[in-house]
Amino acid sequence: MPRLVALDELDLSAYIRPGDGVVFGQGTAEPLSLTAKLAEQRRSYPGAQVFVPITFSATFDPKHADCLRFRGTGGIGSMRKMAGSGALDPIPCHISAVERLIADGLIASDVVMLLVSPPNERGEYSLGLVNDYVRAAVSRARVVIAEISDQVPWVYCDQPLREEEITIAVRTDVAPAELPTAAFSDRERRIAAHLQPFIPDRATLQVGIGAVPEAILASLADRSGLGLHSGMLGDSVVDLIERGVITNAHKGIDPGVSITGALFGTRNKLYRFAHRNPAVRLCSTRYTHDLRTLSGVKNLVSFNSALEVDLTGQVNAEAIGANHIGAVGGQVDFVRAAVLSGGVSIIALPAAGKKNESRIVSALSGPVTTARSDVDLIATEYGVARLKGLGLRERVRAMVAIAAPEHRDSLMREARQTWSDL
């Protein structure tokens, strides 16, 4: 066992220096006891830079920016509040680039905090719920602090943590964060129904989290021979695996194994299913998102979402004005890979927002996340626009046709200011 310290005796100032870069597991892999200490003791290491892409906890608050500097890849989960207050400085980058940014020191990784399982019979600690960029951070770290919890599943990963890599550890019985399955409505079911012709048997799926992906997964019970190669997985994939819908037999790589970088689900379903299950493997982003790996995947069908899409197919998944509520994520990585694999990439979103504002727009209000030159399918509850190979005027007509009916006339009027012959 590594050197153990009682949690109530842990003084992080002995390990974190002012200005250090601190990295910890994101999402469900946040070491909740350690991050609570990080915030509580923050005045002992002013100027420390905390890198956190996604968190589902309420650990951090904008007031913590009095001593800590927060950086991340976007305003997802609890980071949305941090971004909205100005406490989080988003780094616009592809998920596939994060490991390299850490390896090159552009994202500082002096101290790494991890949530890990108890060791297996070989003394290996599983990274438990999220792998992605963690290994790159450990290789750069001066200090690695592990929170060992019996409630963390032992999940197969490409490189488990060894005892000698851990500087100090605490034992806790704190349950890991969970992300329950998102509820979906008839609107999301309609989006999923439009996409059925594009999801054949034996396709390999990349899926995200949220209502639209959940509706799509729920619509696939009649498929056979599907595979999974995805940046993240949620509870719903368990049902499809147990029903024999997902077999991973035809992916072209990793036969029989669902590949992911993160398990964003619940203890009683996804975590229990993944525990010591060799059919689930957590891999780093250099494998899950790398184009060289993805080039070997057959018939990849990629599902991603957007905040808005313009009439020519430009996709904004990051921000509405200065309000950073999304992220680049792995969208571009998988959009490009899906087309190269012989499959399809799908950007799916409701046609209108909560205030009935059109999410099909004549001009984006935020950055271009995915260029129109990479876009394939755009889907709303009103249909699918297949933009690949279409000219700009054809794209405008196709996009207006899948906008909410009450917005179509105004969108066409705005488009005619540029293309008078529409």
From TrEMBL:
UniProt record, GO biological process: acetate metabolic process
Domain Acetyl-CoA hydrolase/transferase C-terminal: 268-415
Domain of life, per lineage: Bacteria
Pfam families cross-referenced by the UniProt entry: AcetylCoA_hyd_C, AcetylCoA_hydro
InterPro entries noted in UniProt: AcetylCoA_hyd_C, AcetylCoA_hyd_C_sf, ActCoA_hydro, ActCoA_hydro_N, NagB/RpiA_transferase-like
Keywords from the named record: Hydrolase, Transferase
Coiled-coil regions listed: none
Gene Ontology MF terms: acetate CoA-transferase activity; hydrolase activity
Span of domain Acetyl-CoA hydrolase/transferase N-terminal: 65-157
Classification via SUPFAM superfamilies: NagB/RpiA/CoA transferase-like
Residues passing through the membrane, by range: none
Cited PANTHER family: ACETYL-COA HYDROLASE (PTHR21432:SF20), ACETYL-COA HYDROLASE-RELATED (PTHR21432)
Protein family: Belongs to the acetyl-CoA hydrolase/transferase family.
Protein's name in the database: Acetyl-CoA hydrolase/transferase family protein
Species assigned in the record: Parapusillimonas granuli
